[in-house]
Amino acid sequence: MKKFVVPALAAVAMLAACSQNAQNETSEAANAIAADTAATTENATADVDAATDRALNSAERSIDNAGVAVDRAADKTGAALDNAADDAAAAGDRAADATGRALENTGKRIRD
Prior knowledge:
98% of the residues lie in helices and 0% in strands. It is mostly helical.
């Protein structure tokens, strides 16, 4: 009977060792998967943060550029209005001068 008990105990010990080895490997694999998942999540979060920053910076530049364009357009409009007012004033002066000359000429003709 001892002949069967010793090999049976050896087999049970081997199974227990294999079982412990399998548990260790499973635990190591689970830890590796958890570490990979954490690293992947961290990388994804960093990528999303970077993409968000780029998008916000781009939007800010677009808004700044639009503000500059509006300022330029307002400046051009103001300059155009100033020029138009100057032209209108000059035209009014010329019209007044022409009217004055016409009245003078009419007065001279009436006297003559």
